[in-house]
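Pilot study result, target chain (416 residues):
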Amino acid sequence: MRWLSLLALASMAVGLPTRAAIIEAGWVGTWAAAPQPPLAGTLATYRNQSLRLIVHTSTGGTQVRIRISNLFGTAPLVIADAHIARRAGGADIDPGTDRRLTFDGHPSVTVPARSTMLSDPVDLDIPALSDLAISLFLPNATAATTTHFLAMQTSYVSTTSGDTTAAAHLPAAKPIESWPFLTGVDVVAAPGGSAIVAFGDSVVDGDGSSPDADRRWPDALAARLQRSAGTAPATSVLNQGLIGNRLLRDSPHQAGSPVGRGFGPAGLDRFQRDALEQPGVRSIIIRLGINDIGLPGAIAPAAERASAASLIAGYRQLIARARKRGVRIVGTTLSPFEHTTIAPGYYTPAKEAVRQAVNHWIRSSGAFDAVVDFDQVLRDPAHPARLLPGYDSGDHLHPNDAGYAAMADAVPLTSG
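Predicted structure:
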């Protein structure tokens, strides 16, 4: 088993032509969220209203741009005005940092269905580990058909009509708990800066952590990297977790989903977009597969049951694709889930046997460039099929803040 440090992985020279295209002009992602269709019964519609979306940076920079996604939309997305600023608190911004965003030089943009659009860069000093507010004015009736459901962060929508994207205080702000349309914030970082993508399911997404506290394990890892960087080039951490995500199959269909994918597309399908194409990516941490094991026979059809062999074949595909792109890939073991309350039948002894077989392969195969043993970190030594009670959020599947901090601490930042 190879236990290379994340700092070492992030700094390794790769020298492939494709890398130059990814790290273009020093752009590095500082925040990201995987796009997904809305869950059944959660489709929000906005009209003549402003969204103020709150995000937490992982690394700093001197210029910034945003990424808007209409990936699951069936109609064009019209944004009549867009601003970015440092957050002062709640729905308020620091007006001295407010910047209007443009798209190909225009203050408004129409994003075609199934498409993504980058804003033009603006000059703004972005501190690491700080909060930004991205404000979008939606003049027409706009259904949030592309969103990120499990934000674990309060954002806001104006309840008054009109463009309030530049307002220091968003009038009559209503809280929302998702990130509609916004999927990325990039910065021009110091030379040599790079990104680590945390790619996976709800344990990457931060389910079970404290809302509005940035206690997901990718957040804790970003904070550790900033503290440890010293004079070295900064490394960001991009959270590409997705609740309900599976490696091999789309998540179970939700009635009313516009594309029939419920929580979102399979990890194999979204890996290119959400991991390999992230600006500045040099390494990817994979935490994915527990829903392939648990969901069939519980929420998904039993016929979709995944074997250890099929999961291993899926991991090998991710590994091959990452190496072809010159990106390092880190595997993590699947943590315990006995007695989970997610759904009846999610855990069975037969499913536990699959988890153990997968973990054995991750630890012993040498297929990944490095391994982080989250199972060892989170399991109860007295009952290894269960989460340690002090790390359990209460559903016996997702860690709490302490568990997520322990996961981040398990990622080695020094060689060894």
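One observation from the pilot: Residues 11-23, 254-261 have pLDDT under 50 and may be disordered. A full batch analysis is planned for the follow-on phase.
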